[in-house]
Design a protein that fits this description.
- By secondary structure, this protein is mostly beta strands.
- Helix content is 14%, strand content 47%.
- The protein has one helix and three strands; from the N terminus they run αβββ.
- It has a three-stranded antiparallel sheet with strand order 1-2-3, with no helix packed on it.
- A hairpin with a 2-residue loop joins β2 and β3.
- The radius of gyration is 19 Å and the shape is flat.
- The termini are far apart.
Length: 83
């Protein structure tokens, strides 16, 4: 029986990687909007043949799924103070 790898450090490494590599603005254009859905304040888009552009960098991806929600609607309720 093989043991599963330890991924306890994974969320921290993702945070470091994203903060160093992700830019705040990115443009994209898709050849086809395959599907879209709005359910429980969450938008889901499935795109095909997507071109990404950021200043001088350019890339193409075959399939992309974008999930977006309203940050205000997703906020936690205010804390309760019990006396």
């Amino acid at each position: 029986m093989t043991s599963l790898p330890d991924h306890s450090h994974t969320p921290h490494s993702y945070h470091i990687s994203l903060s160093c590599r992700v830019k705040p603005k990115l443009n994209f254009r898709a050849e086809k909007l395959n599907t879209y859905r709005f359910c429980d304040n969450v938008w889901t888009f499935m795109l095909n043949d997507v071109d990404f552009k950021e200043l001088s960098e350019f890339g193409t991806v075959g399939k992309v799924k974008i999930v977006a929600c309203d940050a205000k609607a997703a906020a936690l309720p205010p804390p309760r103070y019990d006396d």
